[in-house]
Amino acid sequence: MNILDKIIFVKQKEVSKNRILYPIQKLENSILFNRKSLSLVRKIEKSRIGIIAEFKRQSPSKGIINDTVSMEKVVKDYEEAGASGISILTDFSFFSGKNENLTKTRSIVSIPLLRKDFIVDEYQIIESKSIGSDVILLIAEILSKKQIKDFTSLAKSIDLEVIIEIHSEKEIEKLTENSDIIGINNRNLRTFIVDSNNCLKLVSKVPKNYIKIAESGIKDVKNILHLRKNGFQGFLIGENFMREKDPGNSCRNMIHALKNHINDEI
Fold first, then answer.
1. Chain center to CA of 181
2. Domain definitions of the chain by residue range
3. Long-range CB pairs of 100-107, under 8 A, 24+ apart, other chains included
4. Fewer beta carbons below 10 Å: N end or C end of the chain?
């Protein structure tokens, strides 16, 4: 059983447990469920930067990345640095995340929040809205085209935007018209190996009407500028920031340098 299969096996058990502990009716009655969501799409479209800064303490492939920084400080620093959005890992078993991290972040920042998790059930979409998410991630590799269509429709009905994540050309056929953003992941989720060129191999094959974001293995401004020239408007960056003692400052420095390069182009 590879890493992705293990994650999905654990996730399905987790969802079954949570359905009993936190019934859908209870989720729908939460304070955050009826709030107006913030649009990551509009934020990226208005920004020349498009960085979605991620908070995660560990990963299955790298182990502990950073378990000492204050989450509250990091996410506030991300916002002040000029990030277009913030991604919060909520998976506990493999990433040491938790739903409370997203809810806490929602209370202290005013930019769109992406719930980064492995969504395999409609329950998790309702849950995402109830904990303060603005955007959810649907991973094409673990879902059928029908599931993606149904999950996207449900998300839209409760004011959530959707990122469809793909990793290979065969997954492009699973895209649906009502998707907001297409994320192309450089990381193979079955092996967690990163191929930094994967985004560039696939971007021309994705229909032009989608906003496209690059995920994983983005290390520097030069890398981002090259991706921008090839059609990407957004860049999901986590480990590159989180492995630093001060992730927020690392994000700030990258955005500052990126702005300088873009201004020079103009």
1. 11
2. 3-265
3. 100/131, 101/55, 101/71, 102/131, 102/132, 102/133, 103/32, 103/131, 103/132, 104/71, 104/72, 105/55, 105/71, 105/72, 105/75, 105/132, 106/32, 106/131, 106/132, 107/132
4. C
* 235-245 residue pLDDT tens: 999 999 999 99
Among the four given CATH numbers 3.20.20.70, 3.20.20.80, 3.30.530.20, 3.90.330.10, the one describing domain 3-265: 3.20.20.70
pLDDT of residue 265: 63
Q: Provide the annotated active-site residues.
A: 54, 56, 116, 165, 185, 215-216
Cα of 25 vs its chain's centroid, Å: 26
Q: Are 84 and 101 in contact (CB under 8 A)?
A: no
Residue 2 has a CB neighbour count (10 Å cut-off) of 11
Separation between Cα atoms, residue 148 and residue 154, nearest integer Å: 10
Q: 162-184 burial, b for 16+ CB within 10 Å, e for fewer?
A: bbbbbbeeebbebbbeebbbbbb
Pairwise CA distance, residues 44 & 235, whole Å: 10
Tell me the two tokens of residue 123.
Answer: 């329950």
Ranges of residues in the chain whose predicted pLDDT is under 50: none
Residue (of 165, 141, 162) closest to 151 by Cα position: 162
Which among 39, 241, 14 has a CA at the least distance from the CA of 118? Answer: 14
